[in-house]
Amino acid sequence: MDYLDYLPASADTDAIVKERCKRLAWANQDKKGFLRYRTPAMQLTQYQAAHVDCSGDTVIIGDSEEISDLDRHIIRNHLKAFMPWRKGPFSVFGIDIDAEWRSEKKWQRVSPALPDLSGKIIADIGCNNGYYMFRMAPALPELVLGFEPSIQHYYCFKALHGMAGCPGLDIDLLGVEHLSLFKSCFDVVFLMGVIYHRPSPVDTLRDILCALKPDGTLIVESQAIPGDDPMALFPTDTYAKVPGTYFVPTGACLCNWMKKAGFIDISLFCRHPMSGAEQRRTDWMVFESYDDFIAPENPGLTVEGYPAPWRIFVKGRKKA
After folding, report:
1. Which of 72, 52, 70 is closest to 62 using CA atoms?
2. By C-alpha distance, which of 251, 225, 223, 59 is closest to 157?
3. Rounded to the nearest 5°, which phi and psi values hold at 82?
């Protein structure tokens, strides 16, 4: 499929094609840093799963009896090439991938607040390996387009989708900064775990508002600090050891950002403290994780001395 065929005339198709060609030319370089992900993705897409089930917590792509033990060993090694796995869980031909994040918990919080996704055109900004895109597939959207500028995550999705073959899913090496090319294109936009990495969050939200169709819906999930006052933390360097973190808002602050960006019917529908039970090291993500980011003598603080992170979920709508 070519997702351009599903976009309305309001999309700047020429500019999108130009940017896509530029990004693909960059990704298709025959250099080690690109081949390390492109090669296993190409190898994995040779396997076509007969059984695919995206309706449960674990995205299932193929059953174990569909392949030989030798093929399972080959597939496992190719899947390992995409480590660290951040989002999941997945089961690929009986190979269980326990990702760093238990993303099914986040989906369980989001799904009750979702509008009807059937027949809709949806954007998942910063889609990573596409876990949430696969979870949307049973709702039968017309298109879910993942925006993902990371080579690692882009090819990981390409590998998984090549094996699963779920209709209506596509990805491009684009970021949130390219949303201005997609004027009035999307019925629903997901922005999961991105907003605190943006130096100008209100401008980002305005770009999303522009990319939404009238009456379209935005779902934002963000790292947050606890509290009810409309304020945001602006860390000196890192926050919970993560560089590139700009503003970490409270729930009230994020709602105010959305209001100032022009959204209506804004609601904070979930918030909770983070924990090592939801973000942790696994055999598929062997590096530092949540417990390494928190002060050992005080679980209420990060290692830098800031308030330990919460997660917040906010929904808003573009005026019809």
Report:
1. 52
2. 59
3. -95, 5
Burial (CB count within 10 angstroms: exposed 0-12, middle 13-18, buried 19+), residue 258: buried
CATH superfamily of 23-317: Vaccinia Virus protein VP39 (3.40.50.150)
Dist CA 95 CA 159 (whole Å):
14
Q: Which residues of 210-232 are buried (b: 16+ CB within 10 A; e: fewer)?
A: bbbbeebbbbbbbbbbeeeeeeb
Instruction: Give the span between the Cα atoms of 163 and 141, in whole angstroms.
Output: 20
What is the distance between the alpha carbons of residues 45 and 279, in angstroms, rounded to a whole number? Answer: 29
Tokens of 41: 């993705």
pTM: 0.97
Q: Where are the beta strands (DSSP E) in the chain?
A: 52-53, 59-61, 90-92, 95-97, 121-125, 143-147, 169-172, 186-192, 212-224, 232-233, 248-249, 264-273, 310-317
Give the Cβ contact number of residue 13 at 10 Å.
Answer: 13
Q: If we measure between CA atoms, which residue out of 42, 43, 93 comes closest to residue 67?
A: 93
Residues in contact with 190: Cβ distance below 8 Å, sequence separation at least 6, in sequence order:
122, 123, 124, 125, 132, 219, 221
Q: Where are the alpha helices (DSSP H) in the chain?
A: 13-27, 32-44, 69-80, 103-110, 131-136, 151-164, 201-211, 251-261, 290-293
Is the separation of the CB atoms in 76 and 195 below 8 Å?
no
Cβ-count burial 18-29 (b if 16+ within 10 Å, e if not): ebbeebeeeeee
Torsion sign across C-alpha atoms 31, 126, 161, 91: positive
Q: From CA 138, how far away is CA 128, in angstroms rounded?
A: 19
Q: Tell me which residues of the chain have a pLDDT lower than 70.
A: none
Query: Cα dihedral sign for 85, 111, 232, 304?
Result: negative
Q: What is the pLDDT of residues 227-252, one digit of tens each?
A: 999 999 999 999 999 999 999 999 99
pLDDT of 1 reads 81
Quote the distance between the C-alpha of residue 238 and its chain's center: 21
Determine the 3-state secondary structure of 183 from DSSP: coil
